[in-house]
Design goal:
The chain is of the alpha/beta class. It contains ten helices and eleven strands. Helix content is 40%, strand content 24%.
């Protein structure tokens, strides 16, 4: 199997994980992981429409749905990591208090602008954040000051903050940590938090199912788990 290119379609939350682990996997096996990143919900839709891939890494719900519709090999799914949502500011900027739902709400209302994922057709964090704003009764106020990333590695909320186009960035912690030059405030308060399990599965359209299985197994090794944790995710 030396020299096989494995097509991976993955949530953007795994960006920095693959930056470290893809070269390590190639050194260990001789096979290359070619990774396409994007918002989980968008990728799940594309995969359901038979987007070609060897490995898919999306939300647990997405993998379950894809397995049900015959796009993921039954029994191939492996829980890789859990992801939480956090807040970031520009380097050196004051960090708002977001330790409770009340202080988080005040921080959101006080912010001049925020960057986040799209609530429809974007990432998991955008969907959840829309529910949080509704729960806090600030949907209209936040819509007026929200900038939505384009999705994928080039549309990270942290990049919008880095460019000075938003005061706060709210996204998966791992996606915020992927942007150098901004400061992480911390995770959302527990009462408002959402934990997204990211799961890998073998596509039924896989050209290299055995190599795909080997890559998924590699992502569950102790070495991989150390990298996953260092990049802002909780290894499964």
């Amino acid at each position: 199997m030396s020299g096989i290119e494995i097509k991976v379609v993955s949530t953007t939350a795994m960006k920095t994980v693959f930056e470290d682990l893809a070269p390590a996997f190639e050194r260990a096996t001789g096979n290359r992981a070619i990774v396409e990143l994007g918002p989980s919900l968008r990728l799940e839709k594309e995969l359901s429409e038979d987007k070609p891939a060897d490995v898919a890494i999306v939300s647990r719900t997405g993998i379950n749905d894809l397995e049900t519709c015959g796009r993921i090999v039954a029994g191939s799914a492996v829980h890789i990591a859990d992801s939480t949502i956090g807040v970031a500011v520009a380097k050196g900027a004051p960090k708002p208090d977001i330790s409770s739902p009340e202080t988080f709400k005040r921080a959101m209302l006080a912010a001049k602008s925020i960057a986040c994922s799209k609530p429809v057709g974007g990432g998991q964090s955008g969907v959840h954040l829309a529910k949080v704003f509704e729960q806090l009764g600030i949907t209209a106020e936040m819509q007026a000051k929200s900038t939505y990333g384009a999705g994928g590695a080039g549309g990270l909320a942290g990049l919008v903050v880095l460019r000075g186009e938003a005061e706060l960035g709210i996204q998966q912690m791992a996606e915020l940590m992927a942007v150098a030059g901004i400061d992480i405030v911390g995770p959302l308060p527990r009462e408002l938090q959402s934990v997204t399990p990211f799961v890998a599965g073998i596509s039924t359209s896989a050209s290299h199912p055995q190599a795909a299985k080997a890559l998924i197994q590699f992502l569950a090794t102790p070495e991989a788990k150390r990298v996953i944790k260092a990049k802002g995710l909780e290894p499964a």
